[in-house]
Specification:
The protein has 340 residues and is an alpha/beta fold. 32% of the residues lie in helices and 24% in strands. A six-stranded parallel beta sheet has the order 5-2-1-6-7-8, with helices on both faces. It has a six-stranded mixed beta sheet with strand order 10-9-11-14-13-12. It has a two-stranded antiparallel ribbon with strand order 3-4. The structure holds 3-amino-D-alanine (2RA). Residues 129-131, 157, 161-162, 201, 212 line the site of 3-amino-D-alanine.
């Protein structure tokens, strides 16, 4: 006995990964529907060894469906998520729309799975921002041991975070460096991304931070502990897939870097690749297509009383979005719906 599952936004980067991961993990499905906007109606998408044709989101009836994995922007989510939830279909939403709603649990299963029980307030569960998801997987086991006081994080975010258009732009701009073209199409980024880095993701806020940086602060507090102080600098880099993060952590209690390694080695969702030698660390290229949050370069940070510095890499389309959403679906099934 399996579930009736809907994937909303099935033709985008994240929607396609959701289908790949549902199939890879053999999520118990009795029936699946793949939805997209009217302009993508009938587009074929892969689900394991099957090919599915997208249906029209605007006219779809969610009645009788168990769960809907949403991978569309906040505007479409605003229109259709309440409709699905009201029809009794639990929404697992990858947009930022409901992440900060006190009546909607924001879940990373390795970190705060118990909070999923709050889903029934709105029949909606929120998926965190990709850069937050991998970071809290790394922070939680260390927080449990030595209580985190402050986090300073710099991110190196791939262009796939900006969708297929972001990936296409990096590809075209890189080619254009070698074969200049005349009419360069309008950019999705504020400056050239090929052979460059851009310290700006999402919109600027009044305090000089960007909304992407604010998300990491607000979501870490909601998922782990509101007392944790976080400051972030989010940077777009010319990488197709895979977000990297340099993280400095200050604890309330002393924590030796080797004990931190031991804790991370055993922690859920983490792969510790950490040798103090050339190549003894993970880079985005090695993380692509994988489930793990990779941790490397663990070392004492001697500039504060109880400090650890580390490097964190993960596939932003997987743990940063689609995998985390499917893991939420698995947790919902195992703990609440209990059909599969
Ligand atoms: C990005 N985290 O990387 C944002 C949204 N996916 O662009």
């Amino acid at each position: 006995m399996g579930y009736k599952v809907v994937v909303v936004g099935a033709t985008g980067n994240v929607g396609r990964e959701m289908l790949n991961i549902l199939a890879e993990r053999e999520f118990p499905i009795d029936e699946i529907a793949v939805l997209a906007s009217r302009k993508s109606l009938g587009t074929e998408v892969s689900f394991g060894d099957k090919t599915l044709k997208t249906k029209d989101l605007d006219t779809f009836d969610f009645t009788g469906w168990d769960m809907a994995l949403f991978a569309v922007g906040s505007e479409a989510t605003k229109t259709y998520a309440p409709k699905a939830a009201a029809a009794g279909c639990v929404v697992i939403d990858n947009s930022s729309l409901y992440r900060y709603d006190p009546q909607v649990p924001l879940i990373v299963p390795e970190v705060n799975a118990d909070a999923i029980m709050g889903y029934s307030q709105k029949n909606i569960i929120a998926n965190p921002n990709c850069s937050t998801a991998q970071m809290v997987v790394a922070l939680k086991p260390l927080h449990d041991r030595a209580k985190i006081k402050r986090v300073v994080v710099s991110t190196y975010q791939s262009v796939s975070g900006a969708g297929k258009e972001g990936m296409d732009e990096l590809w075209e701009q890189t080619k254009a460096v070698y074969n200049p073209v005349k009419n360069v199409p309008p950019s999705k980024f504020s400056k050239q991304i090929a052979f460059n880095v851009i310290p700006h993701i999402d919109v600027f806020l009044d305090d000089g931070y960007t909304k992407e940086e604010w998300k990491m602060v607000a979501e870490t507090k909601k998922i782990i502990d509101p007392a944790i102080k976080v400051t972030a600098t989010c940077v777009r880099v010319p990488v197709f897939v895979g977000h990297s993060e340099s993280i400095n952590i200050e604890f309330e209690e002393p924590l030796d870097w080797q004990e931190a390694q031991d804790i991370l080695r055993e922690a859920p969702g983490i792969m510790l690749i950490d040798k103090r030698e050339p190549g003894g660390y993970t880079t985005p290229i090695e993380a692509v297509g994988e489930y793990a949050t990779y941790i490397s370069r663990v070392r004492q940070d001697p500039t504060v009383e109880n400090g650890i510095a580390l490097w964190c890499v993960s596939d932003n389309l997987r743990k940063g979005a689609a995998l985390n959403a499917v893991q939420i679906a698995e947790t919902l099934g195992n703990r609440v719906l209990k059909k599969g």
